[in-house]
Design brief:
Elements (H helix, E strand, L loop, with lengths): L6 E3 L8 H4 L22 H13 L3 H18 L2 H15 L7 H13 L5 H19 L1 H5 L17 H15 L3 H5 L10 E3 L4 H4 L3 H13 L24 H4 L13 H16 L6 H17 L5 H15 L6 H16 L13 H15 L4 H13 L3 E6 L11 E6 L13 H17 L1
Helix pairs in contact: 2-3, 3-4, 5-6, 6-8, 8-11, 11-13, 13-14, 14-15, 14-16, 15-16, 16-17, 16-18, 17-18
Length: 445
């Protein structure tokens, strides 16, 4: 699976802090903050430098007051980026001295969403979904023992059962995608102040707000975690059509009228939307990234019985379609990784199946590096090739052997030209006596 981290919001690493403290209520300190505008001639950058300085001095409350000033200014300016950054920092700072619970965090985030507008609203919905998910992660043991609640109070999270919680996570992700058409026209760089690019080509892979929010939703829906809830009628990837080439897959009819908790349905639908959105891009980087995610997902969950062959054929076609682009090396890497998986299944004691797949993987890796040696996919290929060529040796004995009879050992090795072995006879009683002496000596020390 293509698991690289392309683009993350800085606050994603901070939302967990909300569970130690809760979201800070700005209204608490309004009287202490005056005025609610920047000093004359100041800018957001200058005000954030003040926050950093106060944080470095360990003055969390003063830093939080400064964040309040920035937040109020950002609200006045309707500056989505600065509002998000303010929320991010308050999560970080308030946990140092305020002891509110997770429920207050969620309630206040809901209030923030109610007063927000586009393009802030999609980000806040996505963030709230993440907070709900982290809440489940930290309380998994509790939910495992909780029975389904008949009359759930949506305004009282402490009464929620597992089904209700996952319903809310799904709801928030889908609400984040509500304005998909607008988000497709909104460049992601408007949120640069709160984004971290995990790879050099991160911006190309997530060029719009839609790409960012959709991929966050897909990452949740592709996860096995929601499967703890089993819908009565489960959506299944039961057709080879899900393996079709990207341009054909973009038009496949994917319909489902069953349980709303079938997250695999949401995953494949959003992936289809991403692929259709980028199908005619001049630069295929974002398309290839989405399609590799789709193929990996379908390979894992489809029930065709021939997943690997369908997967490989589509990868080979995708690679050839975009062979002149650096992003094609990502496809080549996944082809090589599949060959290596097959190589690891080789067992010379049983058959010659899969014997030469390691060599095929290396050939693919070399080809990617020859085409575009500086591309991210080529770099991944180099890492994979080094792992394939690593020298390895192992020795196994049968688990049970008859006394005073010969027994077998199995010596395995990889990438080793010469191997020397020597069998040394050992008297068991002498060996056991010596081991006992060593044990007693160790105890004395």
């Amino acid at each position: 699976m293509n698991t690289k981290k392309v683009l993350v919001l800085c606050f994603i690493t901070l939302t967990g802090l909300a569970f130690a403290a809760g979201l800070y209520s700005f209204t608490t300190h309004k009287k202490a903050i005056s005025p609610l505008v920047f000093p004359k001639g100041s800018t957001y950058a200058k005000e954030w430098k003040k926050v950093d300085s106060l944080v470095n001095l360990g003055l969390s409350k003063s830093a939080l007051a400064q964040v309040e000033l920035i937040y109020q200014k950002a609200k006045t300016d309707n500056n989505a980026t600065q509002i998000v950054k303010s929320i991010m920092f308050r999560l970080k700072l308030v946990q140092q001295y305020q002891e509110d619970d997770v429920f207050k965090s969620i309630y206040q985030m809901n209030d923030e969403i109610k007063t927000s507008s586009y393009p802030l609203t999609p980000i806040l919905h996505s963030m709230l979904a993440d907070i709900y998910q982290q809440y489940y992660t930290r309380n998994r043991w509790s939910f495992a023992r909780r029975t389904e609640v008949v009359n759930v109070k949506l305004d009282d999270i402490s009464t929620w059962d597992l089904k209700t919680l996952f319903d809310q996570i799904i709801k928030q992700h889908m609400l984040a995608l509500k304005d998909a058409d607008s988000m497709k026209r909104t460049p992601i760089d408007m949120y640069d102040d709160v984004l971290t690019y995990g790879t050099p080509d991160g911006r190309k892979l997530r060029p719009t707000l839609y790409d960012f929010v959709a991929n966050r939703a897909v990452d949740f829906f592709m996860n096995d975690e929601p499967d703890v809830i089993r819908p009565a009628y489960k959506f299944e990837l039961n057709s080879p059509d899900y393996f079709k080439n990207y341009n054909e897959f973009a038009t496949v009819n994917i319909s489902y009228t069953g349980d709303s908790l079938s997250t695999k349905y949401y995953a494949i639908k959003i992936l289809q939307g991403l692929i259709a959105f980028h199908a005619h891009d001049k630069d295929p980087s974002a398309l290839i990234d989405a399609d590799l995610k789709r193929l990996s997902f379908v390979r894992k969950y489809a029930i065709t019985g021939i997943n690997d062959s369908l997967y490989l054929n589509t990868l080979l076609a995708l690679e050839q379609t975009f062979i002149t682009w650096p992003a094609s090396t990502e496809v080549t890497h996944d082809i090589a990784a599949l060959y290596q998986e097959k190589a690891l299944k080789y067992d010379g004691r049983k058959s010659e199946d899969n014997k030469w797949f390691a060599k095929k993987a290396v050939v693919e890796c070399d080809a990617a590096q020859a085409r575009f040696k500086d591309a991210y996919g080529a770099q991944r290929c180099a890492v994979l090739e080094n792992a394939i060529k690593e020298k390895k040796m192992g020795f196994e004995l049968e688990k049970a052997n008859l006394i005073n009879t010969p027994f077998r050992g199995y010596l395995s090795y990889t990438n080793v030209n010469h191997l020397y072995a020597r069998v040394i006879p050992v008297d068991f009683e002498s060996y056991r006596h010596g081991a006992a002496i060593i044990t007693r000596t160790d105890r004395k020390h």
